[in-house]
Design goal:
- The protein is about 40% helix and about 20% strand.
- The strands form three sheets. A four-stranded antiparallel sheet has the order 5-4-7-8, with no helix packed on it.
- The longest helix has about 40 residues.
Length: about 240
Amino acid sequence: MLNYYINGTSLKSYYKKIVTLLIMKCKLLFSLIFFLFTCIHANAQLALDNIIEIDGVVMTADSLRAVPNATIQVKNKERGVESAYSGVFSIVCYKGDTLQFSCIGFRPKEYIVSKELNGQFFSMVQLMIQDTFYLPETIIRPLPSKEGFNYAFLHWRVPNDYYEVARNNTNAMVMRALAYTLPHDGRESQAAYQQKLAKEAVYYGQQQPMNILNPIAWGQFFEAWKRGDFRRKENQYISDY
């Protein structure tokens, strides 16, 4: 049996060294991959353990009434919730985060979530203290004379309140004028186009009739003329009802 040599080493021994080196490299690679997966799993488990869901109620400190629409926000993070009408809220954050409570008419409060809490759920009651607002003074003086009152009553323009603004926006004449002047939106344009297609489909493959030779149409025209349907109205936007 022939035995080949490479640089004084037999071919069989040479292959054995190569296989041994490959096995060592594979073991090292597998060990590295296992170590990486172990680190990733440990970090993921640590991050999961730090997440906590906080359920609580926001109440007044003096009478223990619920505080609705209070804002609960995680400090330095763009994440927060709003308390319900009953003052109940629920938020998810990390252990060690700071919760900021704020509401109109109450002093802001902060709560630091302890890192020593066990589990992923925690319940709390946050009391809010009513704040005092000092408005700038307002001085009310009477008008100098009766003539001044008459002038103010006739020429001063007092801004409309919300009810008057809403009434003006829903005025029948204004809405009718907007309906005549504003362009159609996508839904209205699509509906008009479909109506046109449906009308054309009725006379598909034939000539559409011309009402200029229709005696019934002429009779309807003369009746409308007698009724005064073609008279010019003073304002076309005013409803008849």
